[in-house]
């Protein structure tokens, strides 16, 4: 009988110890979970910072035809050489010039730029472009990209479109920061209001009307 009593006492002690161990393990696991939760949220907050900074990116759209890829790269170089802003380039080209444009970037100092090459489908112009034998160079499909920017899937509140015959000598961020009034889809430089440029501006307006804006 005394032996049985001792065995029962030992079993009770073991059960108490087991309960203590289980309680300790449970509390430790709960503490670790809270720590992991705090760490994951702290890292999430850090990860969000680059995405928040993307609102400061200046999106620039420029075309790169096969025969004028060098000119396009010269324009891009002039932009990044005159600004400290973060610029993202959307380089629009045709299928036959995609590899050429990428090669120009990867084998020069431009390899550090942020960019995306977009392929423009010239079939969207079928039946919409009137032949003009006096200026056949103006019939190149990429000359009409500016009228079809929504088709490129570029999701920015606004962007800067630059021709490949431009050398930028100022900070592109200053241009991007210009406020456009509600309902305005584009802006001209102030010298476009000179009498000598009125005809050119009117002709651009006719093009815009022709494309349905």
Which helices and strands occur, and which strands form pairs?
Blueprint: H1 2-53, E1 58-63, H2 69-80, E2 87-93, H3 98-106, E3 114-119, E4 160-162, H4 172-176, H5 198-210
Parallel strand pairs: 1-2, 1-4, 2-3
SSE string: HEHEHEEHH
The gyration radius over C-alpha positions equals 32 Å
- Calculate the mean pLDDT score and round it: 74
List unreliable stretches of 5+ residues. 32-54, 206-213
Walk across the major sheet and give the strand order. 3-2-1-4
**End-to-end C-alpha gap:** 103 Å
Shape: elongated
- Helices, by number, come to 5
Percent of sequence in beta strands: 5-15%
| Strands, total number | 4
Helix content: 40-55%
Secondary-structure-derived class: alpha/beta
| Main beta-sheet strand count, sense and barrel state | 4 strands, parallel
């Amino acid at each position: 009988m005394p032996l049985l009593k001792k065995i029962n006492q030992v079993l009770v002690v073991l059960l108490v110890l087991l309960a203590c161990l289980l309680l300790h393990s449970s509390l430790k696991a709960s503490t670790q979970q809270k720590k992991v939760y705090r760490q994951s949220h702290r890292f999430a907050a850090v990860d969000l910072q680059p995405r928040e900074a993307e609102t400061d990116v200046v999106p620039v759209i420029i075309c790169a035809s096969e025969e004028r890829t060098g000119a396009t790269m010269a324009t891009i170089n002039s932009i990044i050489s005159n600004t400290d802003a973060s610029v993202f380039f959307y380089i629009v080209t045709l299928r036959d010039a995609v590899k050429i444009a990428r090669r120009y970037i990867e084998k020069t100092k431009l390899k550090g730029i942020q960019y995306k090459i977009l392929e423009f489908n010239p079939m969207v112009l079928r039946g919409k472009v009137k032949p003009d034998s006096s200026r056949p160079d103006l019939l190149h499909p990429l000359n009409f990209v500016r009228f079809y920017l929504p088709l490129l899937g570029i999701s920015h509140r606004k962007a800067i479109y630059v021709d490949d015959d431009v050398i930028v000598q100022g900070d592109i961020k200053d241009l991007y920061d210009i406020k456009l009034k509600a309902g305005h889809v584009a802006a001209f430089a102030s010298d476009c209001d000179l009498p000598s440029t009125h005809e050119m501006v009117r002709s651009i307006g006719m093009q815009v009307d022709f494309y349905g804006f």
